[in-house]
Design brief:
The complex is a heterotetramer of chains A (318), B (148), C (183) and D (639). By secondary structure, chain A is mainly alpha-helical. Chain A has one domain. In chain A, 70% of the residues lie in helices and 1% in strands. In chain A, helix 2 crosses helix 9. Chain B has 148 residues and is an alpha/beta fold. Chain B has one domain: Rossmann fold (3-Layer(aba) Sandwich), CATH 3.40.50.12280. Chain B is built from five helices and five strands. The longest helix of chain B has 23 residues. Chain C has two domains: 91 residues, Alpha-Beta Plaits; 55 residues, Alpha-Beta Plaits (2-Layer Sandwich), CATH 3.30.70.20. The longest helix of chain C is centred in the first third of the chain and has 8 residues. Chain C is elongated. Chain D has 25 helices and three strands. A two-stranded antiparallel ribbon of chain D has the order 1-2. In chain D, helix 2 packs parallel to helix 5, helix 4 packs antiparallel against helix 18 and helix 12 runs parallel beside helix 17. The model of chain D has no long low-confidence stretch (mean pLDDT 82). Classes of the chains: A mainly alpha (318), B alpha/beta (148), C alpha+beta (183), D mainly alpha (639). Chains A and D meet through helix 1, strand 1, helix 4, helix 5 and helix 6 of A and helix 15, helix 16, helix 17, helix 22 and strand 3 of D.
Chain lengths: 318, 148, 183, 639
C-alpha cells in the first residue's frame, strides 16, 4: 500500500508528472528558440533561456489591475498548468504510462481545451479590451483546430478499432505494437499531416499566434499579466509543446517500443524534439502571422480536407 | 532557495518595451536592428515585449513631446519592479535639436530616474547592445537588492 | 499556399550564423564614423565658432578668472549632441575631432560629457597700425564679428566687448598690421 | 400511512389544488401566496422523491387506475397512471426544477403585480408537466400538453407591458396549438384503430402490427411532440418565449417544458410504437437531432441578448438528447437521459444567473453589461460552473454526458458501418466547442471586463435567489464527478424501463398480456463505457495542485510581491494598459466578439437570419413542412 502510494506519487511528481514535463517542456521551448534562430542565421539564445525567463518572471512583481477579478486572474494559470500535467499522466510513453489505461481520446480532447479556457478566463478576468480581442481570437483558433483534430482522432480510433469502438489511448498504442505504427499505414498519412498542422495552433506559435499577437494587440489575453502568473502561462505554452508532440507520438508513432522505460522516455523526448522543430520551428521561420479569418479558413478547408481524406480512406477499409 | 537563480535569471532574460516619444524613427530602427541576425541581441535573452507589464527594460526614444509625456509616464508606472529605464539617443536626455521647443519637455531625468543613457544620434547597434547589456546587469543587481 | 523560404531555412541551420560576436570581440566603426568628440584644449584658440554652429547647443564655454589670465573651459555634452560634425568642420585649429569611438554608454549623464580647459594668459587689447589697407579680411575671419571695417571711409574699429582674443585676425592680416597691445 | 402508490396522483393533484388555493387566497395575501407556492412544490418534490426507492432502486413499476377502473376483458376503460423508471426520471427533473424555480421566484418576481394569477399559472404549468410524465393514458397526456402549452403561453405574455412578450406569446400560441393539433389528430387516428387510449395497451396492439393509418398517426404525433421539444424546424417560438418570459419561467421552459416533449418522443418511439429498432427511424431522428444542435448553436453565436442566447442553447442541447436517443442503443439512451438531466441542471442554473443579472441590473443585453464579477461574485461562480458544464469541460456533468453521447454515436457508427453517424460525431464535437465559444462570449461580456456606468449600481442578489443557484451548481458538480453512481442509480433503471416494453404492458394490463400479443423484449446490450474516471482525475488534479501550491508557498519569499490595488482608483500603476492613454471604461462587449469566425460564415448567417424572419406565417410553414417530412419518411420507410 505504502509502496503503491509512493510509486503513484513518483509518477505524479517526477517521472511522467510535474518535474519531467516541466523540464522537457522548457527544453523543447529552448530548442525551438535556438533552432529558429539558427534558421534565421542567428546565434540565438542559450537553450536554457526559457528557464531564465521563467525564473526571472517569478522574481518580478505581480500587479493586479483595478478592472481585474483577482481570484480568476491568479487561479487561471495554475489551473492551466495542473491540467496539462494531469493530461501528460494520461498520455502513454509507448507501452508505459502511469494512468494510460484510463486515457480516452475524448477525455484527452477535452482536457486539451482546459489550458486554452484557462488562458481565456484569465485574459477575460484582467478586464483589458485588448485581452477581450485576444480571447475572441483564441476562441476562434480553438474552434478552427478542433474540427480537424476530432477528425484525426476518429480516423485513428477507427483504424485501431476496426468494427469496435476504440477510444482508449493505450489500446491504440498496443494496436500499433501489434501492427505497425499508424504513420506506416498510408491511409493515415494525411491525418498525420493534419495533426502536425494542428499542433502549432494548439500551442499558439507563429503563424497561428493571432491570439497573442504582441505587435498588434499587445499579447492579447496576457496583456495585464506580470510576474509569477505570467511565468506560469509561459510555462504552459512550453508544456503544451511537449504534451501535443507526445500525443502525436502516441497516436502515430506508437509502435517502436524498446521495453525499457528510461530508453522509451529518451526516444519520446527525441521524437518530440524532431516534431517540435518540424511543425513549429520550421513553420514559424518561414511564415508571417495570419489574420484570424484566414486562420479559420485554413483549418476548416485545407487541414480538414486532409483529415477527412484519411477518415474516408480508413472508413472504406483500404 | 531560488534567490540566486532568480537574480541571475533576471540579468539573463531582460525583456524590452520600447516607447517612442516623438522620435525621428532613427533610434527605433537601430533598436530593431539589434534584433536582426547581424547583431542578434537574443543571444543575451533580449526580447521585445508587447506590453509594459511584461517588460524589464523600458527603452525610451524621442524628445518627450508634451503629447507623449503623460502617456510615457503612465506607461512607465505600469512596469513591475525591478525595472530599468534606458534612453536611446540624445533626444530623451536633452531634447537634442528640438530643445527649447514649445512642445518638447525633454530631459526625461526630471521625471524618472534613468538607469542607462545611450548617446549617439543615432547610436550604433553595437552601442545599443552595450547599453542594454549594462541595463540587464543593473537589473540583476536591483533584484538582488530586493532580496535584502 | 507556398513557403518560399523553406529551403533557406533548412540550409541556414547547417551554415555559419552571420552574427557578429560583438561584446566579446570589439567591432571598430568605419573610419569616418562620427562618434565621441575629442577636444584638444591646447589647440583651441577660443574662437567660439563651434559654439555658434552647434545646432542643439551642446557646446558651452566657461570663463574663470585666475591670476594672470583666464581658464577657458569648453564642454561638449554628448547627450545633447547630434554628431553632425559641423563643429569639427568649423574648427580651423583642428582642436575638435569626432572620433570613431561609439561606446557612449553611461549610467549617469555626467559621464557623457567631454570637456577641456585651457589657461589663456592675459593679453592686451587688439590694436591696428598704419599698415592697414582696409582689406576687411580681419572682419571676415572674426568669429565674433567684433571688427568692423569701412573701406570707403577708411575706418577700422573693434568692439572689445565682443573680442575673445583668438588672434585669428592677426594671423590672417596680410600687412601684419594687427597686434595685441602690450599689457 | 398511505401506500406510496398514491403518491404520484397526490403530487399532481396537490399541485393543481395549490393552483386553486392560490387563486382563492393568494391574490392579495403575500404570505399565503408564497406559502402555498413553496408548500405545494415542496410536497410534490417530497412525494416524487419518496418514489425513488421503490421504483428506481427496487425496480417496481406502479400502475394506478383512477377510481379503480381496472381494465375489463383486456380493454382499458379508465384513466391509468403508470410510473415506470423512465417516467419517474423525468418526473424527478420536473419536481426539482419547479421547487427551485418557485424558491427563486419569491424575490425575483417581487417587483411585478398580479402575482396571484402568476402563481396560478406557474403551478398549473408544474402540475401539467408532472402529470404528463406520470400518466399512462395517451389522451391524458394530450390534456396535460394542452394545459402546459396554454399556461406557458400565458406566462410568456406575463410581462406584457413589453411588446415583444406579447409577440412571443402569440408565436408560441400559434405554433403550440399546431403541435397540439398534430398530436390530437394522431391520437384520434390511433383511437380509431385500436379503440383504446391506454399507452400500455396501445403498445401491445401496435407492436409488429403497423398499418398505414397507425404509421400516419405516428408521424403526426411525433411531429406534435417534436414541436413541444423544439426540435429544429419547430424551434422558432422557443427563442422568443424563453427570452420574453420571466426568468424563473424560462428556467422551467428549458428544464421541464421541452423535456416534456423529449419525454413524449422517447415514450413514443421506444415504448408505444417501438419503432426505434428500425434503422430508418434512427437515421431520421439522428439527422433531426444533429441539425437541431448545429443550427441551435450557430444561432446562439449570433445572439446579443443573454436569455435569447440561452434559449438557442436549449435548442442545441436538446439536439444532443434527440441524437443520442435516436441511436436505440443502451449507451445512447443513457447518454440522452443523462444529458437531458444535465441540461435541466446547467441550463436552469444559467437561466437563474441571467435572471439574477436582470434583477440587479435591469437588462440582459450583452452590449450593455460588463464587469459584474466584482459586484456579484457568487453569481459569477455559479455562472462559470454552469458555463463549463454546458461546454462540457471535465469534471462537470456536461462532460460526462457528452462523452457518453459521443461514444454512443461513434460506437453506432463503427458497429453499423454507417458513415453518417461518424459525421454526426464530428458535428457533435464541433457544436460543443461552439457552445464553449458562445459562453466565453457571455463570460466576457457580462461578468468580466470593465464595468459600464449602467452596471455601477449592481448588487449581489438576495439569499433566496442564491440558494437555488448554489443547489444547482452543486448538483452540476456532483453529477459530473459521481456519474457512475448516477448511471447505476437512475440511468440504468430508466434505460432498461424504456427497453422493457413487456413489463410496461404487463404491469398495466395484467401479467401475460404482452406474451399474448407475441411481444418480446429487445435485447439491449449492456452499456459499455470506456475510461473516464473523474475521481481519479480530480485526485491527480488535487495532488498536482497541492505540489504546485507547496512550491508557490515555499517560493513566496523569493518571488515578487503580489500587489493589489487599494483605495484610490487613480493609481496609475493598477490602471488597465491602454497604450499609455488614460484608462477609461472600455469594454469589448459580446455582440460581435467572434467577428473573425462570423466573417468566414457570413453567407451561412445571412441565410439563417433570413430564415428566422420572425413572421409567424413562415414559422407555421416550417412546422407543416417538418411534419410532412417526418410523416412522409415514416410512411415510406416504417413498416
Amino acid at each position: 500500500m505504502g509502496i503503491t502510494i509512493l510509486r503513484l506519487l513518483f509518477y505524479v511528481l517526477i517521472f511522467p508528472g510535474c518535474l519531467f514535463v516541466t523540464a522537457i517542456g522548457l527544453l523543447l521551448a529552448g530548442i525551438d528558440r535556438k533552432v529558429l534562430a539558427r534558421m534565421q542565421r542567428r546565434v540565438g539564445p542559450p537553450i536554457v533561456q526559457p528557464v531564465y525567463d521563467f525564473f526571472k518572471l517569478l522574481g518580478k512583481e505581480t500587479i493586479i489591475p483595478h478592472a481585474a477579478n483577482k481570484t480568476a486572474f491568479l487561479a487561471a494559470p495554475v489551473v492551466g498548468f495542473v491540467s496539462l500535467v494531469v493530461l501528460m499522466l494520461f498520455i502513454p510513453v509507448f507501452s508505459f504510462s502511469a494512468f494510460s489505461g484510463r486515457a480516452d481520446l475524448i477525455v484527452v480532447l477535452y482536457l486539451l481545451t482546459i489550458p486554452g479556457v484557462a488562458l481565456i478566463v484569465g485574459g477575460s478576468a484582467s478586464g483589458s479590451p485588448y485581452a477581450g480581442i485576444g480571447i475572441s481570437r483564441e476562441m476562434v483558433t480553438m474552434m478552427a483546430y478542433e474540427l480537424p483534430l476530432i477528425l484525426v482522432l476518429l480516423s485513428v480510433a477507427k483504424m485501431a478499432g476496426g468494427s469496435a469502438l476504440c477510444f482508449s489511448l493505450s489500446d491504440i498504442v498496443a494496436w500499433q505494437e501489434a501492427h505497425h505504427s499508424m504513420i506506416a499505414h498510408w491511409q493515415l498519412i494525411p491525418a498525420a499531416v493534419a495533426m502536425l498542422l494542428v499542433i502549432p495552433a494548439e500551442v499558439g506559435t507563429q503563424p497561428f499566434d493571432v491570439a497573442e499577437a504582441e505587435t498588434e494587440i499587445c499579447e492579447g489575453p496576457l496583456i495585464e499579466y506580470s510576474g509569477a502568473p505570467l511565468a506560469m502561462f509561459k510555462l504552459n505554452t512550453a508544456l503544451k509543446m511537449f504534451v501535443m508532440t507526445a500525443l502525436f507520438v502516441a497516436l502515430f508513432i506508437g509502435g517502436i517500443d524498446t521495453g525499457i522505460v528510461a530508453l522509451n522516455a529518451l526516444i519520446l523526448v527525441l521524437l518530440c524534439i524532431v516534431l517540435t522543430v518540424l511543425c513549429m520551428t520550421l513553420i514559424h521561420a518561414v511564415t508571417a502571422r495570419l489574420k484570424i479569418e484566414h486562420l479559420f479558413q485554413f483549418y476548416w478547408t485545407f487541414v480538414t480536407t486532409l483529415a477527412t481524406v484519411s477518415l474516408v480512406l480508413v472508413w472504406l477499409g483500404l | 532557495m531560488f534567490k540566486k537563480m532568480i537574480a541571475k535569471s533576471t540579468a539573463k532574460s531582460p525583456w524590452i518595451y520600447h516607447i517612442n516619444t516623438g522620435s525621428c524613427n532613427g533610434c527605433d530602427i537601430e533598436l530593431v536592428a539589434v534584433l536582426t541576425p547581424r547583431y542578434d541581441a537574443e543571444r543575451f535573452g533580449f526580447k521585445l515585449a508587447g506590453t509594459p507589464r511584461h517588460a524589464d527594460i523600458v527603452v525610451v526614444s524621442g524628445p518627450i513631446t508634451s503629447q507623449s509625456k503623460e502617456r510615457l509616464l503612465r506607461t512607465l508606472e505600469q512596469v513591475p519592479e525591478p525595472k530599468c529605464v534606458v534612453t536611446i539617443g540624445s533626444c530623451p536626455q536633452s531634447g537634442n535639436v528640438f530643445k527649447g521647443s514649445y512642445s518638447v519637455e525633454a530631459p526625461l531625468e526630471q521625471y524618472v530616474h534613468v538607469d542607462v543613457a545611450i548617446a549617439g544620434c543615432t547610436p550604433k547597434p553595437e552601442a545599443v547592445i552595450e547599453g542594454l547589456y549594462k541595463a540587464a546587469e543593473i537589473l540583476g543587481k536591483k533584484r538582488e537588492a530586493m532580496n535584502q | 499556399m507556398n513557403f518560399p523560404f523553406i529551403r533557406e531555412a533548412i540550409s541556414n541551420v547547417f551554415s555559419k550564423p552571420s552574427t557578429r560576436n560583438f561584446p566579446a570581440e570589439n567591432v571598430e566603426a568605419k573610419p569616418n564614423y562620427r562618434g565621441r568628440i575629442t577636444y584638444d584644449a591646447e589647440k583651441c584658440v577660443n574662437c567660439g565658432n563651434c559654439v555658434k554652429v552647434c545646432a542643439p547647443s551642446a557646446i558651452t564655454r566657461k570663463y574663470e578668472d585666475v591670476e594672470g589670465g583666464q581658464r577657458i573651459t569648453y564642454t561638449f555634452d554628448l547627450t545633447s549632441c547630434t554628431f553632425c560634425g559641423t563643429c569639427q568642420d568649423f574648427c580651423d585649429e583642428g582642436a575638435i575631432v569626432l572620433s570613431p569611438d561609439y561606446h557612449m554608454v553611461a549610467e549617469r549623464a555626467s559621464d557623457l560629457v567631454v570637456s577641456g580647459t585651457r589657461f589663456a594668459a592675459k593679453k592686451g587689447k587688439l590694436v591696428n597700425s598704419d599698415a592697414c589697407v582696409f582689406c576687411t579680411l580681419c572682419a571676415k575671419v572674426c568669429p565674433q564679428e567684433a571688427i568692423t571695417v569701412d573701406r570707403k571711409e577708411k575706418l577700422w574699429s573693434v568692439d572689445y566687448d565682443k573680442c575673445v582674443q583668438c588672434g585669428k585676425c592677426i594671423a590672417k592680416c596680410p600687412k601684419k598690421s594687427l597686434s595685441f597691445e602690450e599689457a | 400511512m398511505i401506500s406510496y402508490v398514491h403518491f404520484p396522483v397526490l403530487a399532481v393533484m396537490g399541485i393543481f389544488l395549490g393552483a386553486f388555493l392560490e387563486e382563492i387566497f393568494g391574490v392579495h395575501n403575500k404570505a399565503a401566496r408564497q406559502g402555498i407556492l413553496v408548500a405545494t412544490t415542496g410536497i410534490a418534490f417530497l412525494l416524487i422523491c419518496a418514489l425513488v426507492k421503490p421504483v428506481m432502486f427496487d425496480g417496481e413499476v406502479i400502475s394506478y387506475w383512477m377510481g379503480d377502473h381496472v381494465p375489463v376483458s383486456g380493454y382499458a376503460i379508465g384513466i391509468g397512471y403508470e410510473i415506470d423508471q423512465l417516467g419517474l426520471f423525468f418526473a424527478l427533473l420536473v419536481v426539482t426544477t419547479s421547487l427551485l424555480s418557485s424558491i427563486f421566484s419569491l424575490r425575483y418576481m417581487e417587483r411585478d403585480g398580479m402575482l396571484g394569477r402568476f402563481y396560478v399559472l406557474f403551478l398549473m404549468l408544474c402540475g401539467a408537466v408532472l402529470g404528463l410524465t406520470l400518466t399512462g393514458d395517451i389522451f391524458n397526456l394530450f390534456i396535460m400538453i394542452e394545459i402546459m402549452t396554454f399556461a406557458a403561453v400565458a406566462l410568456t405574455a406575463f410581462r406584457g407591458e413589453r411588446g415583444f412578450a406579447l409577440e412571443a406569446a402569440f408565436k408560441y400560441l400559434v405554433l403550440g396549438s399546431m403541435g397540439s393539433s398534430f398530436t390530437l389528430a394522431g391520437i384520434a387516428l390511433l383511437y380509431l384503430q385500436c379503440h383504446t387510449l391506454n399507452m400500455a395497451q396501445l403498445a401491445s396492439m401496435l407492436h409488429g402490427n403497423m398499418t398505414p393509418v397507425s404509421v400516419f398517426a405516428f408521424g403526426l404525433m411525433l411531429t406534435g411532440l417534436s414541436v413541444k421539444a423544439f426540435i429544429v424546424p419547430f424551434h422558432t417560438p422557443a427563442a422568443d418565449a424563453y427570452a420574453a418570459a420571466p426568468t424563473c419561467i424560462s428556467m422551467m421552459f428549458s428544464g421541464m417544458v421541452n423535456k416534456a416533449g423529449v419525454y413524449g418522443v422517447i415514450r413514443l418511439v421506444y415504448v408505444i410504437f417501438r419503432a426505434i429498432d428500425l434503422p430508418a427511424m434512427q437515421v431520421l431522428l439522428a439527422i433531426f437531432g444533429a441539425v437541431t444542435m448545429f443550427i441551435g448553436v450557430t444561432m446562439a453565436l449570433a445572439q446579443h441578448d443573454f436569455k435569447r442566447l440561452l434559449a438557442f442553447h436549449s435548442i442545441s442541447q436538446i439536439g444532443y438528447v434527440i441524437t443520442a436517443a435516436a441511436l436505440g442503443t443502451t449507451l445512447g439512451l443513457s447518454g440522452a437521459l443523462f444529458h437531458a438531466m444535465n441540461h435541466t441542471l446547467f441550463k436552469g442554473l444559467l437561466f437563474l444567473c441571467a435572471g439574477s443579472v436582470l434583477y440587479s441590473v435591469g437588462t440582459t443585453d450583452l452590449d450593455r453589461l460588463g464587469g459584474l464579477s466584482k459586484k456579484m461574485p457568487q453569481t459569477t461562480i455559479c455562472f462559470l460552473i454552469g458555463a463549463f458544464s454546458i461546454s462540457g469541460l471535465p469534471p462537470f456533468n456536461g462532460f460526462a454526458s457528452k462523452w457518453m453521447v459521443y461514444q454512443a454515436i461513434y460506437a453506432k457508427a463503427v458497429e453499423s458501418g454507417n458513415f453518417l453517424y461518424a459525421l454526426i460525431t464530428v458535428v457533435a464535437v464541433v457544436v460543443s466547442v461552439m457552445t464553449l465559444a458562445s459562453f466565453i462570449k457571455v463570460t466576457q461580456a457580462v461578468f468580466f471586463g470593465q464595468c459600464p456606468v449602467s452596471c455601477a449600481g449592481a448588487k449581489e442578489v438576495p439569499l433566496s435567489m442564491r440558494i437555488p443557484m448554489w443547489v444547482m451548481s452543486a448538483l452540476c458538480v456532483i453529477t459530473g464527478v459521481f456519474y457512475n453512481q448516477v448511471e447505476a442509480w437512475f440511468l440504468r433503471p430508466a434505460v432498461s424501463a424504456a427497453f422493457n416494453v413487456t413489463h410496461y404492458i404487463d404491469v398495466m394490463m395484467g401479467e401475460g398480456t404482452a406474451a399474448a400479443f407475441g411481444i418480446s423484449n429487445v435485447k439491449a446490450a449492456a452499456a459499455s463505457f470506456s475510461y473516464w474516471d473523474p475521481i481519479l482525475w480530480l485526485l491527480l488534479f488535487v495532488v498536482v495542485m497541492a505540489a504546485t501550491g507547496i512550491v508557490i508557498i515555499t517560493g513566496a519569499r523569493e518571488r515578487g510581491r503580489i500587489l493589489t490595488p487599494e483605495g484610490a482608483e487613480e493609481d496609475g500603476k493598477y490602471a488597465t494598459f491602454f497604450s499609455g492613454e488614460k484608462s477609461l471604461p472600455s469594454h469589448v462587449s459580446g455582440s460581435d466578439l467572434f467577428w473573425g469566425f462570423k466573417h468566414d460564415w457570413k453567407s451561412y448567417f445571412r441565410v439563417m437570419q433570413g430564415a428566422h424572419s420572425g413572421i409567424i406565417n413562415d414559422y407555421a410553414l416550417w412546422v407543416v413542412v417538418g411534419g410532412a417530412i417526418i410523416t412522409l419518411w415514416l410512411t415510406v420507410f416504417v413498416r
